[in-house]
Amino acid sequence: MNPDASTIAAGAPIEVDLSPVAEGQDIKVFWRGKPIYISHRTKKQIDEARAVNVASLPDPQSDEARVKSGHDQWLVVIGICTHLGCIPIAHEGNYDGFFCPCHGSQYDTSGRIRQGPAPANLAVPPYQFVSDTKIQIG
Amino acid sequence: MSGPSDYQPSNPALQWIERRLPIFGLMHSSFVAYPTPRNLNYWWTFGAILSFMLGMQILTGVILAMHYTPHADLAFKSVELIVRDVNYGWLLRNMHAVGASMFFFAVYVHMLRGLYYGSYKEPREVLWILGVIIYLLMMATGFMGYVLPWGQMSFWGATVITNLFSAIPYVGESIVTLLWGGYSVGNPTLNRFFSLHYLLPFLIAGVVVLHVWALHVAGQNNPDGVEPKAEKDTVPFTPHATIKDMFGVACFLLLYAWFIFYMPNYLGDADNYIPANPGVTPPHIVPEWYYLPFYAILRSIPNKLAGVIAMFSAILILCFLPWLDSAKTRSSKYRPLAKQFFWIFVVVCILLGYLGAQPPEGIYVIAGRVLTVCYFAYFLIVLPLLSRIETPRPVPNSISEAILTRGGKAVASVMVALVAAGALFLGSLQDARASEGSDRPPANNWSFAGPFGKFDRGALQRGLKVYKEVCANCHGLSYIAFRNLAEAGGPGYSVAQAAAFASEYKIKDGPNDAGDMFERPGRPADYFPSPFPNEQAARAANGGAAPPDLSLITKARSYGRGFPWFIFDFFTQYQEQGPDYVSAVLQGFEDKVPEGVTIPEGSYFNKYFPGHAIKMPKPLSDGQVTYDDGSPTTVAQYSKDVTTFLMWTAEPHMEARKRLGFQVFVFLIIFAFLMYFTKKKVWADSH
Question: What region does B287 belong to: left with phi over 0, alpha with psi -120 to 50, or beta?
């Protein structure tokens, strides 16, 4: 009952062009049936994410560990709440990050869980920068 | 089913079979000669009601499966086509969907009956555990069945519930992948759920056979909890129990039919009339009402794994009930303390169900935690403790003695309490949506409301005109074919008029022999063409918000009625939240935005739209559409007409549903009375 060959094949890596995404904007792409949020963060959002005392977080992880160095403005996360799998809404909640409407989990501008029942940060999918304005997810 | 039978059929053909396979003897000893305690009350008819419901679900389900398509792109549409085009498809679908709720309602009564009268105690432990297994299988079946229509709640319910398994350490993720058959809930998930949803009811039927077998070995418990000792303590199953069960089933059918014919969507969720969309989560994900108490327990625990464990323990703890409660007296009738705690437990379950439908914030979370503790305390502290400290009242020596000394008055008051509590519980779903923060749409006087409601033909024809001239520029109507316009219960056009109406449309067809697509005039069998070729085009042309298809809009939109209205709604059959909302939105545009409200660029202020910022500009203005029949050409009249028309597109067979409902009710009431008087006659000398 594991995924069949065509499902696996359809889950191959995809490339996303980032050039149309302006600062402060974000886009949602689908990969393996999961929504991937790609946010072009503002300076303020990055600073907010880095000002936090990492040890105080429910799932301690620094912002630097969640983005690719040199591309710090780009946050790429799987937009699936780690609680029970709903899709959080971007740019909502108390932390200017993501807010899950199902059970009230709130994530910050680095996609880290800050409040609510979710046990972990929003997952970062495997991806790499092919060029400065293009990433490959998968 | 206990031991060899001495039954001898008189018919030689039956004798021939009986000597080779003693099936008639088995039937005879199990369901005819079988001695049943003569003091059983009506709570004992729920066994028969449940058997009946299982048969009903399997029968309607098998027929529905003949018309259903288990594919992520087609499932939603195939369910709509069952309702619209299959002969009596609407009836089958309503019977099956409402049947699930009724099945659970009956099983809860049946379980509480067992709890109250101590039916799980020695020697009926295995019988009780088999019952818990049936209940677990029912929950799995019900959940997978709810996924099959592939609406928004189906999809997101499936996502939330399958994600529960990811809490299991180490193997959780692999289990979830196996359930999904992919990387997320999708077509493979739907396919395997369909397969399992078809399989599990037959497993249930198998366990039911074991359940009945165990019952007939141990014998039925009874309200006094003393075993039958002499022959005068029992009556033969047929005709006594059979006719009593028939009367019970007939009464239950009245409730069932009330939902099927008059309130088919009362127990459902409006969001499930929106096709599944993996990119948008509905604001409140609420399971079906029968899972709500367990959902509340899940959510009241802040840790994910602990929450999942608590939820499953809440059910599995029932298996250990025979050993947790070691009191010698079976029936709570003779246990003054246990009786009180039983009713507290029932209230706790109902309140948990209510909380399960509320948003998980503030006071609801705290209340949920308190009640979760109460739930487990009943099994782990109260029952073990009571069996040690409680002094039960003396139990009668025999069933006949109990009958001679009894006075029956409690049943009626219990019945009333249960019905009131049940209504509160069922309606808590609607209450969940009461806090949206927008104004209540005003109630209208619809021609199609109530048990005898019919569509106003003039309104339908005018509404069609408004749709065609205004709405159709942006909104599709893709489940309605031109032929529907000439069908009974619709706008009342003739077949020729519908054909003429169709021919005004250009329909894309092809490819022809040259391989090209071409346009031709519409035929009655064609569906209303959509204004945009796909959702992306619709989105791009409308500032990012795709205009929804209107075929189902009056069923897919709703608003919270709140306590206590949802209880009255059950009796008044009010179910026009959707039309009220649609009509209110059409009239709710205001040029002046009130202070304190900011409306984003490209949006318009609407009083009744959730959040008030709607992308649709004010669609209707006075005098915009001309009417030939002299009706006023005002926005109010347009809204009323087009909403009536959209109610018809959402449910073209509504008039047939209500008409058949009346006939069924007349029949059922007569049938129930006949059963009652037959029962009285049969039992006349047994009381």
Answer: beta
Neighboring chain B residues of A85 at a CB cutoff of 8 Å: 159-160, 162-163
Q: Could you give the CA distance from residue B101 to residue B255 in angstroms, rounded to a whole number?
A: 11
For chain A, the residues whose C-beta falls within 8 A of a C-beta of chain B are 1-4, 7, 11, 28, 30, 32-35, 83-87, 100-104, 117-119
User: Are B184 and A32 a contacting pair at CB < 8 A?
Assistant: yes
How many Cβ atoms sit within 10 Å of the Cβ of residue B460?
A: 26
Task: Name the one residue in this structure whose structure tokens are 């009796």.
Answer: B571
Q: How far is CA B145 from CA B154, B192, B195, B487, in A?
A: 9, 11, 10, 31
Task: Choose the mutation target among B155, B164, B185, B281 for the interface with A, i.e. most A CBs under 10 Å.
Answer: B281
Using DSSP's 3-state secondary structure scheme, residue A116 falls into coil
In B, minimum Cα distance to A8 occurs at B182
Q: How far is A30 from chain B (nearest CA, A)?
A: 9
Query: If you count them, how many residues does chain A have?
Result: 138
Find residue A127's DSSP bridge partners.
A137
* C-alpha–C-alpha distance, residues B316 and B202, integer Å: 22
- What is the rounded distance in angstroms from the CA atom of residue B580 to the CA atom of residue B180? 39
pLDDT, tens digit, 9 for 90 and up, residues B111-165: 999 999 999 999 999 999 999 999 999 999 999 999 999 999 999 999 989 988 9
Determine the residue of chain A that is closest to B153 in CA distance.
A86
Angle at B328 between CA B323 and CA B333, to 5 degrees: 110
- Within 10 angstroms of residue B210's Cβ, the number of other Cβ atoms is 15
To the question of domain A19-129 being in CATH 2.102.10.10, the answer is yes
Chain B: which residues have CB within 8 Å of chain A? 156, 159-160, 162-164, 177-178, 180-186, 188, 192, 278-281, 283-285, 299, 302-304, 307, 359-361
**Secondary structure letter of residue B531 according to DSSP:** S
- Per domain, the residue ranges of chain A are 19-129
B160 and A119: CB-CB below 8 Å? Answer: no
* pLDDT tens, position by position, B14-70: 999 999 998 898 889 889 999 999 899 999 999 999 999 999 999 999 999 999 999
Cβ of B177 within 8 Å of Cβ of A3? The answer is: yes
Two tokens at B655? 């008039």
SS3 call for A16 = strand
Instruction: Give Cα separations from B635 to B314, B626, B638 (angstroms).
Output: 54, 12, 5
DSSP conformation letters of B322-359:
HHH---S---GGG-HHHHHHHHHHHHHHHHHHHHHTS-
Contact B305, A82 (CB under 8 A): no
Is A114:B188 a contact under the CB 8 Å cutoff? no
Q: Residue A30 and residue B192: Cβ atoms within 8 Å?
A: no
CA distance A120 to A117: 9
Helix (H/G/I), strand (E/B), else coil: B36: strand
A3, A7, A102 member nearest B285 (Cβ): A102
Residue A40 known to be catalytic: no
Beta bridge partners of A90: A98
Q: Is the ipTM of this complex over 0.95?
A: no
